[in-house]
């Protein structure tokens, strides 16, 4: 790997280590990758602008900006992980102390700007939404707390406030228009479409399945990543997995600034897609497969993996994947056909080789069916939402709106 490529990918690696060490969910890691990515890109842009050109070092400015975001979000890891990387970058810098200090002032200022905007993110506000458990348990198609969840009490709900989140680039005012077709799209219980999809989850998504192959069982775990806190090689969650795929496929000829622009697009697409998906989830909260199946099909059925603690439709996992996929394919000039290796954080599952980004995306979607967490439509529609968000971000990365938007309209 050439040195120019190493500069940014090494910082991406630090971000992934932070995510893995803290066992952050995909939702939280999406926000962190977005903040680090946009901070580095803004640092390069400003360092090359007329007020600073020749007075600061762009690479060092970006290093200070990334450090400012990571250290202020995760101070417990700063001495052992985040500070060390910055120390070595400063040591390797061959310029004057004056340029070093000016770079630090500019970079840290940009990082603080991003973190401050993040602190004002409405996705951090308290949400009073709770499903109507137990009275609504008999209401078909509506979300209720599920009988089993991932290491949490039955009455726990994961991040309902993200439906009000503050996006980086995709304007929140556009989200109602983008998502309007999906508010009435979810298949209803009793329709032929629902029955067809539910038959597939019944057969392939249960804890005990006579038809799911060992490869499919591993697929459910492989693409879950580190959400359950599992250890091992690879990346941290599906966000980190997509980031690592991107690192492998980016041309070695990219300058650090080219990389910074790409990682800004990628990270912000993760989080902005999450906000759009969450808007639909909590606008029309839909029941999970375990609720429908236990009520009407098999009272003892349980999914292969734990059910996430939020409504089923659309899939957060595939919303993230759709955002990241669209950015990466655009960066690769519309060609998804590359050979690459993917690692997972799930222990004892071998690395997998793919010859197409489409194949990886399709398998990631299927993994949520094998896990028993989603019906197929939730994966397909979430991917479409994420893709639309990613396409917009790719074309509008310079219209940064984080921290300067009105509340989303409900």
From TrEMBL:
Signal peptide: none annotated. It comes from the Eukaryota. SUPFAM superfamilies: Acid phosphatase/Vanadium-dependent haloperoxidase (SSF48317). Gene3D superfamilies: 1.10.606.20. This is Phosphatidic acid phosphatase type 2/haloperoxidase domain-containing protein. It comes from Gonium pectorale.
């Amino acid at each position: 790997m050439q040195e120019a490529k190493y500069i940014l990918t090494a910082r991406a690696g630090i971000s992934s280590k932070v995510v893995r060490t803290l066992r952050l969910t995909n939702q939280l890691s999406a926000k962190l990758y977005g903040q680090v990515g946009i901070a580095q890109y803004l640092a390069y842009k400003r360092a090359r602008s007329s007020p600073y050109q020749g007075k600061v070092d762009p690479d060092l400015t970006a290093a200070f900006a990334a450090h400012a975001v990571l250290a202020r979000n995760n101070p417990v890891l700063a001495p052992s992980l985040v500070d060390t990387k910055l120390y070595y970058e400063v040591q390797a810098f061959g310029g004057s102390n004056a340029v070093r200090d000016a770079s630090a002032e500019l970079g840290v200022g940009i990082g603080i700007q991003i973190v401050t905007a993040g602190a004002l993110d409405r996705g951090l506000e308290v949400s009073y939404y709770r499903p109507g458990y137990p009275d609504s348990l008999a209401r078909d198609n509506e979300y209720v707390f599920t009988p089993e969840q991932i290491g949490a009490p039955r009455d726990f709900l994961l991040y309902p406030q993200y439906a009000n989140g503050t996006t980086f680039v995709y304007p929140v005012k556009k989200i109602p228009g983008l998502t309007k077709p999906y508010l009435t799209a979810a298949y209803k219980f009793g329709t032929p479409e629902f029955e067809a999809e539910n038959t597939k989850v019944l057969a392939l998504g249960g804890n005990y399945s006579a038809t799911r192959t060992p490869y499919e069982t591993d697929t459910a775990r492989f693409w879950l990543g580190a959400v359950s806190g599992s250890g091992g090689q690879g990346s941290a969650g599906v966000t980190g997995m997509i980031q690592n795929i991107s690192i492998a496929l980016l041309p070695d000829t990219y300058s650090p600034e080219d990389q910074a622009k790409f990682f800004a697009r990628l990270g912000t697409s993760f989080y902005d897609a999450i906000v759009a998906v969450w808007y639909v989830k909590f606008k029309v909260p839909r029941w999970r497969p375990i609720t429908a199946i236990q009520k009407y099909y098999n009272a003892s059925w349980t999914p292969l993996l734990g059910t996430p603690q939020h409504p089923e439709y659309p899939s957060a996992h595939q919303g993230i994947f759709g955002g990241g996929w669209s950015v990466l394919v655009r960066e690769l000039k519309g060609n998804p056909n590359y050979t690459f290796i993917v690692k997972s954080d799930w222990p004892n599952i071998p690395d997998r080789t793919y010859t197409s980004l489409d194949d990886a995306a399709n398998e990631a979607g299927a993994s949520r069916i094998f896990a028993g967490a989603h019906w197929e439509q939730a994966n397909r529609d979430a991917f479409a939402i994420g893709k639309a968000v990613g396409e917009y971000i790719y074309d509008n990365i310079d219209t940064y709106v984080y921290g300067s938007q009105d509340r989303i309209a409900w």
